[in-house]
C-alpha cells in the first residue's frame, strides 16, 4: 500500500476513566475497575461483576435530542469521537466532501434501549413503543450518528465481528485511506450491561460467575474463571500520512498491517493455528519481522483453554524468542467491552508507542504466568523502547484478528 | 391532561422534551414561525409526541398530526380532534 495511514487522534471511555489521559494513567498504574455490577440488580443470575463506566453523564457530552434518540453505546461512541477529533485537532469541515468517512464495530448494538422498548411492548402494548427504537438498537447506529454529527460523507461501514471488530475497524479505515480517503474515524464502543443482553450470554458459559472482584477476570492463570463483561470503547482518527503532514498534524502511530482468519465458533483449540496465521499475515503486510515486535496486546479471554491456545499461537509465531517478547492484557483492569475492548487496546498501544511504556496486566500476579511460560507484564508498567506493537483479538464466533502498529516515523527513540 | 381540556403549549413543551429530548420554552413553540425541524425535532420525534398524546388522550389523531410540520399545526389538529370527541361542532378553534 503506497498511501500510508497514521493515527493522529484518540478518544477513549472505559471503566477506568473518561478520556484517554485517565484511561492511560489507570492502565499504566495497573488499576482495576472491575467491581460488583450495579447497573441492574443481578441477584438470581450467574453474573455478579462488571466493568461499569462511572460518572458518564451523556448530557454533559451531547445534546438532549441525541441522548433521547440513541442508546448508551452510541452516546459513548459519539463522545469518544468528539474526543478523538479534538485530540487530532481536526475539524471535518476542513476536508473536502466525501474524503472523510467513519467505521465502527459493534457486537451488542443498542441493547439497553431495545430492552426498554420491549418492556413497554409487553407491559403496555405496541402503541407505547417509541419511534426511536427503529434507529437506536441498530448495530450501525453509531456509525450513522457520527456521520451525521460531523458531516462525514466518505466511506462508511459497520462491522459486527465481536471483539475482533475493534481491530478490524482500524484495518477497514486503513484500507479506505489506501483507496483514496483522506481521513477516517474508526473504532467501537459498547454498552452491553442490560439484563437481557447478559442473559443471552450465560449460555456460552464463558462469563465469569466469580463474586470476588479480585478473582473475577484473571487471564493466563490456572484459575481463570471466564471473562467479566464491560462497557466502553475508543474511537481513533486515522489520516493519510501526507495529508496529516500537510496540515502539520502530529502522527502518534502508524497502522502497518492486519490479518484475519476464521477457525469456527467456540473452537478455541484451532484458534491457536488461526491466531498464529492472522499474526503472520499482519506482520508480513507490515513488513515487520517477528524479532522486531516489542509488545503483544493479547486477546486474553480468561478461559484456560482459550488462553492456552493463544500462548500456543504466540509460541508458533515467535518460537524460542517468546520468552523475550513482553505480552500484556490491560483489559484485565477493565473487563471485556466486546468490540470496544480491542479498540481500547489500540488506544493504549498508541500511547505505549509514544511513551515507550508497556502497561501491565492488572490483578494477575507475577507467579501466575509461569503456567504458560509467557513474558507477561504484571505488577507495574515497563519502560522500554516500543517501536512495534502486535495486537490480537478473537470473536466468539471463531474469527481471529491481528493488527500491527508502529511508532510514527517522525517520533524519536524516546519521548 | 384529559379529553376535556385542550392541549396547551406548556403541555406540548413537556411532551417535546420527554419524547424527543429537546428542551424548549412554551413561547418558542407558540411562535407562529416555529417549525419542528428547525427546533431540532425530527419526524421520528413528532411521531413519538403524537403517539404519547394518543395514549394519554385515548383518541386517534391520524396521519395529519403525525405529519404536522409546526407546533401550532399539531396543537390545532389535536384540539380540533378533542372538540370532536366532546361532541362540539367541528371547526377551527380560535387561537389554535
From TrEMBL, chain A:
GO terms for biological process: fatty acid biosynthetic process. Keywords: Acyltransferase, Transferase. Gene3D superfamilies: 3.40.47.10. Residues 2-407 form the Ketosynthase family 3 (KS3) domain. GO terms for molecular function: 3-oxoacyl-[acyl-carrier-protein] synthase activity. It comes from the Bacteria. InterPro entries: Beta-ketoacyl_synthase (IPR000794), Ketoacyl_synth_C (IPR014031), Ketoacyl_synth_N (IPR014030), PKS_Beta-ketoAc_synthase_dom (IPR020841), Thiolase-like (IPR016039). Pfam families: ketoacyl-synt (PF00109), Ketoacyl-synt_C (PF02801). Belongs to the thiolase-like superfamily. Beta-ketoacyl-ACP synthases family. This is Polyketide chain length factor. It comes from Streptomyces formicae.
Automatic annotation (TrEMBL), chain B:
Residues 6-86 form the Carrier domain. Pfam families: PP-binding (PF00550). InterPro entries: ACP-like_sf, PKS_PP-bd, PP-bd_ACP, Ppantetheine_attach_site. It comes from the Bacteria. One of its GO terms (biological process) is antibiotic biosynthetic process. Gene3D superfamilies: ACP-like. This is PKS ACP. It comes from Streptomyces formicae. The lineage of its organism: Bacteria, Bacillati, Actinomycetota, Actinomycetes, Kitasatosporales.
Amino acid at each position: 500500500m503506497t498511501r500510508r495511514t497514521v493515527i493522529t487522534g484518540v478518544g477513549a471511555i472505559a471503566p477506568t476513566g473518561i478520556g484517554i489521559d485517565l484511561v492511560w494513567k489507570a492502565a499504566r498504574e495497573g488499576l482495576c475497575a472491575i467491581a460488583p455490577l450495579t447497573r441492574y440488580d443481578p441477584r438470581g443470575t450467574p453474573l455478579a461483576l462488571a466493568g461499569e463506566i462511572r460518572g458518564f453523564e451523556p448530557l454533559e457530552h451531547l445534546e438532549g435530542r441525541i441522548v433521547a434518540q440513541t442508546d448508551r453505546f452510541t452516546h459513548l461512541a459519539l463522545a469518544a469521537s468528539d474526543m478523538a477529533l479534538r485530540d487530532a485537532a481536526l475539524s471535518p469541515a476542513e476536508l473536502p466532501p466525501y474524503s472523510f468517512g467513519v467505521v465502527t464495530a459493534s457486537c451488542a448494538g443498542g441493547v439497553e434501549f431495545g430492552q426498554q422498548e420491549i418492556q413497554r411492548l409487553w407491559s403496555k402494548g405496541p402503541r407505547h413503543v417509541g419511534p426511536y427504537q427503529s434507529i437506536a438498537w441498530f448495530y450501525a447506529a453509531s456509525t450513522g450518528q457520527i456521520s451525521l454529527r460531523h458531516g462525514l460523507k466518505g466511506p462508511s461501514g459497520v462491522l459486527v465481528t465481536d471483539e475482533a471488530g475493534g481491530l478490524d475497524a482500524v484495518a477497514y479505515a486503513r484500507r479506505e485511506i489506501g483507496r483514496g480517503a483522506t481521513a477516517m474515524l474508526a473504532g467501537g464502543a459498547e454498552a452491553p450491561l442490560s439484563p437481557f443482553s447478559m442473559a443471552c450470554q450465560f449460555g456460552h458459559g464463558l462469563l465469569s460467575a466469580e463474586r470476588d472482584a479480585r478473582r473475577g477476570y484473571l487471564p493466563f492463570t490456572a484459575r481463570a474463571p471466564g471473562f467479566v463483561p464491560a462497557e466502553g470503547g475508543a474511537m481513533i482518527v486515522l489520516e493519510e500520512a501526507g495529508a496529516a503532514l500537510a496540515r502539520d498534524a502530529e502522527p502518534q502511530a502508524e497502522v502497518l498491517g492486519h490479518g484475519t482468519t476464521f477457525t469456527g465458533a467456540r473452537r478455541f483449540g484451532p484458534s491457536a493455528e488461526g491466531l498464529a496465521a492472522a499474526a503472520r499475515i499482519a506482520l508480513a503486510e507490515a513488513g515487520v519481522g517477528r524479532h522486531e515486535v516489542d509488545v503483544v496486546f493479547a486477546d486474553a479471554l480468561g478461559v484456560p483453554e482459550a488462553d492456552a491456545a493463544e500462548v500456543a499461537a504466540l509460541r508458533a509465531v515467535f518460537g524460542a524468542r517468546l520468552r523475550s517478547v513482553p505480552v500484556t492484557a490491560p483489559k484485565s483492569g477493565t473487563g471485556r467491552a466486546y468490540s470496544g475492548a480491542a479498540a481500547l487496546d489500540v488506544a493504549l498501544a498508541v500511547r505505549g508507542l509514544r511513551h515507550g511504556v508497556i502497561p501491565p496486566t492488572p490483578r494477575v500476579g507475577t507467579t501466575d504466568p509461569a503456567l504458560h511460560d509467557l513474558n507477561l507484564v504484571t505488577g507495574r508498567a515497563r519502560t522500554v523502547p516500543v517501536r512495534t506493537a502486535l495486537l490480537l483479538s478473537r470473536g466468539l464466533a471463531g474469527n481471529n484478528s491481528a493488527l500491527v502498529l508502529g511508532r510514527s516515523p517522525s517520533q524519536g527513540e524516546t519521548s | 391532561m384529559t379529553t376535556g381540556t385542550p392541549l396547551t403549549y406548556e403541555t406540548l413543551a413537556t411532551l417535546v422534551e420527554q419524547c424527543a429530548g429537546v428542551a424548549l420554552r412554551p413561547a418558542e413553540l407558540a411562535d407562529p414561525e416555529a417549525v419542528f425541524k428547525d427546533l431540532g425535532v425530527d419526524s421520528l420525534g413528532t411521531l413519538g409526541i403524537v403517539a404519547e398524546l394518543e395514549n394519554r388522550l385515548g383518541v386517534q389523531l391520524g396521519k395529519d398530526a403525525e405529519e404536522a410540520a409546526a407546533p401550532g399545526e399539531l396543537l390545532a389538529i389535536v384540539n380540533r380532534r378533542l372538540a370532536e370527541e366532546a361532541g362540539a361542532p367541528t371547526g377551527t378553534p380560535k387561537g389554535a
